[in-house]
Amino acid sequence: MYKLNEEKMFFDVADGQAVVINIVTGMYYGTNALGSVVLERLVKGNAPDEIEKAVKNLDSCPADIHDRLAAFVDKLIDAEILVTGETVPGGSEPIDQCAVEDFELTLDEFAEVQDLLLADPIHDVDVEQGWPIFKEDEKEEE
User: Is residue 24 part of a domain?
Assistant: First the structure.
């Protein structure tokens, strides 16, 4: 159904926390624990319906989980993290109950290191000034 938008995004999961970096804009995204599990399965190509089955098997799963998952997928598509792709079998495998805090699925967006992520250390260097040369510095030289 979906896959990572590899033209724009870098994705990794470390210690159960998903991080996605937009290599075009320098924005980066983080998800909470359940969001990380769901995102990881979506990136693998698992169908949302299969992932929903796994979530519904967790203790205290809320009745509106279908709507929550759909809204989360919409956010991932709107952020251009996911694009359509082929469906891969799987996704309904059990989820560790520890990955669930309150069944919220969050996608947080950060811009703090945008300049650093977009910097080009090979080309944005000057013998006298050093690295990096930001766009404002280039305008002053002209």
Answer: yes
pLDDT along the chain (142 residues), means of 10: 95 92 91 96 96 96 97 97 94 90 92 66 63 56 51
Q: Name which of 111, 107, 90, 109 is nearest 33 in CA terms.
A: 107
Overall domain count for the chain = 1
Exposed/middle/buried for residue 2 (C-beta within 10 Å: 0-12, 13-18, 19+): buried
> Considering the domain boundaries, does residue 116 fall inside one?
no
Residue 95 CA to residue 100 CA, distance in Å, equals: 9
List, in order, residues 6 or more apart from 47 with CB less than 8 Å away.
1, 87, 91
Which residue type sits at 123?
Answer: H
Put simply, whether the predicted model's pTM sits higher than 0.85 gets the answer no
Domain extent, residue 98, equals 2-111
- Domain assignment of residue 58, yes or no: yes
- Does the CA dihedral 36-41-47-49 come out positive or negative? negative
d(CA 99, CA 32): 9
